[in-house]
Amino acid sequence: MKDRRLPAAIEAAYQLVRDSVIEYQGRPVGVVAALHPDLPAANYAECFLRDFVPSGLLFLLDGEYDIVRNFLKTTLELRTTQEDMAGHMRNPTVLPASFKVTRNSAGKEVLDADFGDRAIGRVAPVDSLLWWVMLLARYVEESGDMDLAQESLCQTGLQNILDILLRDSFEIYPTILTPDGCFMIDRRMGVYGHPLEVQALFYGALKAVKFLLAPSPENKTVLRLVQERGRALRDFVQQQYWLDLGRLNELHRFRTEEFGSDIPNPLNIYPETIPEWVIDWLPDNGGYLAGNIGPSRLDFRFFALGNLAAIVTGLASAEMAKEILNLYEARWSDLVGFMPLKICFPALEGMEWQLSTGCDPKNVPWSYHNGGNWPCLLYHFTGAAIRAGRKDLAKRAFDLACERLHADGWPEYYDGRSGRLIGRRASYNQVWSASALILAYKMQEEDPENFFKIFSRNIEEES
Ligand code: GLC
After folding, report:
1. How many helices (H) and strands (E) would you count in the chain?
2. Residue 324 contacts residue 316 (beta carbons within 8 Å)
């Protein structure tokens, strides 16, 4: 870190992160989602696994390893204390969406986890375990404490996680099939199927597992599977999700209803499904990965986290990464606007909104998950921009966010086509809005290579 005073906004962001730490039995174990007396939902006072990630990365950079270590162990242990859900075969692999510290009738501190069974809409988080694996890898890399990963708790945890990720299902794609709202977008938004975000995190988690699993004779088979699945996933996503002008032309002229293994339109996408907006919106030199695919289904919406995580993890090729950043530059007012970053573009409106969200008033067009702007995405953007050689865009986004976020009191999200208004139901003092800003700052100031080490290797490379 260069020896100079931190900007006031960064100092304030640090203060918020520090104030949000929660302790269990006298040890720091996580951070709350938001620190405000008037929270939009009771569970914002809990520690969400996905929300903890930017704070965790920050603690690691600052050499505060204990809290990350405690978080990783505590969340893994929570699985084993979870009661079975009626009619479910016990599934010890899913990690909770969030947890809190409470007291039992005897006044003793206990942890209470939400595996989706308390969440609004009852959605189980798929991304929690993917984030967990990546954070563990980053912890080991940064602290040098490989012992934690070697502990039987973690090795068994990793095996269990791989069991669920690599398990056969009613599927032939290398992607994973998930229900609506099982990741950052945790409400119904027409994102069931094979959402890009989950695939990008899956790819990142496979790379992290390669780094974490001891290359012992017992792990040989599973490591081979990880490598093969990772390669198949990467090739499939690059072929089937990618959209640029050339690809759009192909789609436009696709033949359909073809049978066989070597055909250009294996998913049977009908050209009639190409939405009008995308044709003029795609710049000549840009492209992106589509939001979702399935049989005769291509969701053309642009989802920020999926695209950015694809760049950071290497799921997108280097050329694709450049084109995604070119798209950001060309469509800056749509994808960044007044506050980085738009979570997805465009918003669902009218009948589509009714059918896809179930008339969700929180997800009205250009609000919240449905085209709102989320500051917590800033660190992903910074990482992706740096990895794609576009530090200029990282700085441009950071400069937009820095003072305003501080002045506005760290809102969770912003509303409007270009993110001009504070989100109608946004909480203030949203911790990942603050930690994302600090991380974005640090990534620009410090050697950014460190942030991507586990992802810089090719999935084919031997561990
Ligand atoms: C909302 C977001 C989710 C986040 C949670 C806590 O439910 O959709 O991604 O984890 O708030 O901030």
Report:
1. 18, 13
2. yes
The amino acid occupying position 427 is S
Give the confidence band of 437 by pLDDT, cuts at 50, 70, 90: very high
Neighbours of 228 (CB within 10 A): 14
- pTM of the predicted structure, to 2 decimals: 0.96
Residue 145, number of CB atoms within 10 A of its CB: 14
Tell me, what amino acid is at 66? D
Q: How far is the CA of 364 from the centre of ligand 1 (A)?
A: 17
Question: Phi-psi region for residue 320, left (φ > 0), alpha (ψ -120 to 50) or beta?
Answer: alpha
Q: What is the pLDDT of residue 463?
A: 57
Residue 395's pLDDT band (boundaries 50, 70, 90)? very high
Alpha-carbon 109 to chain mean position: 31
Strands 302-303 and 344-345: antiparallel
Pocket test for ligand 1, best of 39, 50, 118 (most atoms within 8 A of CB): 50
Query: What pLDDT is recorded for position 169?
Result: 86
Is the CB of residue 188 below 6 angstroms from any atom belonging to ligand 1?
no
pLDDT of residue 386: 95
Q: Report the distance separating Cα 175 and Cα 165, nearest Å.
A: 10
The H-or-E segment that residue 299 falls in is: strand 297-299
Q: Are 60 and 75 within 8 A, CB to CB?
A: no
Q: What is the dihedral of CA 263, 264, 267, 270, to 10 degrees?
A: -120
In this structure, what token pair is assigned to residue 154? 């973690």
Residue 424's closest CA among 375, 351, 373? 373
pLDDT tens figures, 186-212: 999 999 999 999 999 999 999 999 999
Q: What are phi and psi of 109, to 5 degrees?
A: -65, 130
In 276-426, which ranges are continuous DSSP H helix? 276-281, 304-313, 318-330, 332-335, 350-357, 378-387, 391-408
The rounded distance, in Å, linking the Cα atoms of 367 and 90 is 37
- Ligand 1 test: best mutation among 52, 184, 191, 410, most atoms within 8 Å of CB? 184
Do residues 89 and 73 lie in contact, with contact meaning Cβ atoms separated by under 8 Å?
Answer: no
Give residue-wise pLDDT tens across range 272-310: 999 999 999 999 999 999 999 999 999 999 999 999 999
Residue 15 CB: number of other CB atoms within 10 A? 11
